[in-house]
Amino acid sequence: RREPLALINLKKKNEETGEEELASRLDHCKAKATRHIFLIRHSQYNLDGRADKDRTLTPLGREQAELTGRRLASLGLKFDQIVHSSMTRATETTEIISKYLPGVKKISTDLLREGAPIEPDPPVSHWKPEAVQYYEDGARIEAAFRNFIHRADAKQEEDSYEIFVCHANVIRYIVCRALQFPPEGWLRMSLNNGSITHLVIRPNGRVALRTLGDTGFMPPDKITRT
């Protein structure tokens, strides 16, 4: 619903000026800027924690976040914001990364919390959440996709660079949806902790995947997927 034709009321078209006015109105609704979306998976965390507040980053996880922060800073980009999941491991990862990006505002959201986006096809034997989880989490994660992954607003003049710190399931689902791949295939991808996935959204709505789960900036002994 961000295609220019979807943003104007064709019924109000002036019959006298016709095509000229329509072209002018369409041009006014067209995006001009490119959005760069950096999806960061949280760092390694304590799997033994029962509640979310107990699932804090491990010492290695904190090291991973430091490495990710340095990598993002080294890109030399002017980041506009960091949007992060409200879960503890994502929040802690964000706090460490943000040290390397001073002045970039941070926004917490429940939409990006981990969950079961859609039943994978083919099914897997090692991961079988309750069916109700797909209905509860799936709608929320789809809402996150629609809310955050779209072409730039027509009023945006310059290209933007945004960071989203969240979870493997959420990132994999978003990548499938953004590339118009069957979302049921999300579980076929694997993402390391602290990895960087880079999506580019052009003004015409086309999406390109620059990197998927990049951790080439980490020493091999620091790489995990837990």
What is the fold's blueprint, element by element?
Elements: H1 18-29, E1 35-41, H2 59-74, E2 81-85, H3 88-98, E3 105-109, H4 131-148, E4 160-166, H5 168-178, E5 196-201, E6 207-214
The count of strands amounts to 6
At the first level of CATH, the class of the largest domain is Alpha Beta
Q: Characterize the biggest β-sheet.
A: 6 strands, mixed
CATH homology-level superfamily of the largest domain: Phosphoglycerate mutase-like
Description of the structure:
The chain starts with 17 loop residues before the first helix and ends in a 12-residue tail after the last strand. It is of the alpha/beta class. It has five helices and six strands. It has two domains: 1-30, no CATH class; 32-222, 3-Layer(aba) Sandwich (Rossmann fold). Helix content is 30%, strand content 17%. The protein has a six-stranded mixed sheet with strand order 3-2-4-1-5-6, sandwiched between helices. The model has no long low-confidence stretch (mean pLDDT 93). Strand 5 and strand 6 form a beta hairpin. It is globular and about 65 Å long. GO terms for molecular function: protein serine/threonine phosphatase activity. It is an enzyme of class 3 (hydrolase). InterPro entries: His_Pase_superF_clade-1, His_PPase_superfam, Mito_Ser/Thr_phosphatase. Pfam families: His_Phos_1 (PF00300). One of its GO terms (cellular component) is mitochondrial outer membrane.
